[in-house]
Amino acid sequence: MSQGARRLPGVEHPQVVDPRHPLIERVRELCLALPEAVEVEAWGRPTFRARKPIFTYVSAHMERPFSVVVKTDPEEHRALVQDERFYGVPYFDRNHWVGTDLDAPGTDWQLLAELIETSYRQVALKRQLVALDAMRGPSATG
């Protein structure tokens, strides 16, 4: 488990992916840069939360350990699932979540950073959004 991460009490799950892998570290850096974001290991995976609600988690399923799952803007969801880089995630796809593989050739990290932030915005509290907009400057909301 990475430094600063914590486990949820209860049932232990096997670790799906090494949380110290460079791809996971890169996702962690993007997620933990957001206001009040925390990492919690759940289901054997790193999850990133806006305090409590999850906005990003790593490893869509055992066969795709180097993937990331984000909650999309409902208006952008249809376009994303039609893009071959993204796929519906079991149990989550009907709630506007998509997955993408981090280890795919040509991973667009800029787009991934934008999707992580959009996901955060879907679940964050108002004070967290105010803090994020203040971090981003005047152009963040318009």
Automatic annotation (TrEMBL):
Record keywords, A-Z: DNA-binding
Gene3D superfamilies: 3.90.1150.30
Protein name from the UniProt record: MmcQ/YjbR family DNA-binding protein
Origin: domain of life: Bacteria
The keyword Cytoplasm is annotated on this UniProt entry: no
Record-level Gene Ontology MF annotations: DNA binding
Organism phylogeny: Bacteria, Bacillati, Actinomycetota, Actinomycetes, Micrococcales
Pfam families with a match to the protein in the record: YjbR
Keyword Phosphoprotein: no
